[in-house]
Amino acid sequence: MNAHEKEELAAFLLEAEEKKQDVVRITAEKRPNLSVEEAYAIQETLVDTKRKQGKSVVGPKMGLTSKAKMQQMNVEEPIYGYIFDDMVVSGDSISMSSFIHPKAEAEVAFILGEDIEGPGISGAQVLGATKYVVPALEIIDSRYENFNFTLPDVIADNASSSAVVFGTTVKKPEELELDVIGTTLSINGEIKDLGAGAAVLGHPANSVAMLANMLHRKGQKLEAGQIILTGGITGAVPVSVGDYVEASLDGLHSVHFSVKE
Ligand code: 0L1
Ligand code: MG
């Protein structure tokens, strides 16, 4: 794939994101044989464009970290994307007009105290390099019609990244047992899904370790100060106007948002 094609496909997805207008997945018409490698190259172009627009990366995120999602997409490895500063929002100000078809998932986010550079990083090393963990509600919003995509499509689309609300409870990782942390996701008081931290690759720290090892293949590392979304402990649940969405994580209290018009 040449530079012009990469830029064209990144611009196609960025326009969909800016206009809140869903599009047909890239592999349906534009590029049926898109490879995972090419998809990350499109994602990199998209990320560079956002940087040139003055946005800055808060941290990378992991996606497809649950067995169910991996089986559904027929993959053995999760994917990553990037969260930007303008995606971090307050739970009081979520407007449906900012999205195409948003879904919420409950996650634990890691705030790194030290750089982490693969290869061969373990979950234990990640815990040693992590300053704090915080609860998070990620709002994913695929730019593709009906969330209909193949693995390369969703990688190119920055792993459906759209917005995130962080909770205010901040804990050191050693204060919690993150693999058994019980989590519920409720809408208007009704539990829609639940899970434990182990749903994320056995332990959310394993997700960060895997991310460090994946980034190493590109000559990149995780950096102190980055906030990393580790992947959904619960499934992703569609949200709509009028919804009060709340994730409760044992020991980390809750994080919530309300959806307005
Ligand atoms: O954060 C995530 O797990 C989303 C990954 C992309 C797949 C999706 O949009 O469901
Ligand atoms: Mg997620």
Automatic annotation (TrEMBL):
GO terms for cellular component: cytoplasm. SUPFAM superfamilies: FAH. Keywords: Lyase. It comes from the Bacteria. GO terms for molecular function: 2-oxopent-4-enoate hydratase activity. This is 4-oxalocrotonate decarboxylase. InterPro entries: Fumarylacetoacetase-like_C, Fumarylacetoacetase_C_sf, Hydratase-Decarb/MhpD_sf. Residues 77-257 form the Fumarylacetoacetase-like C-terminal domain. Pfam families: FAA_hydrolase. Coiled coil: none annotated. It comes from Salibacterium salarium.
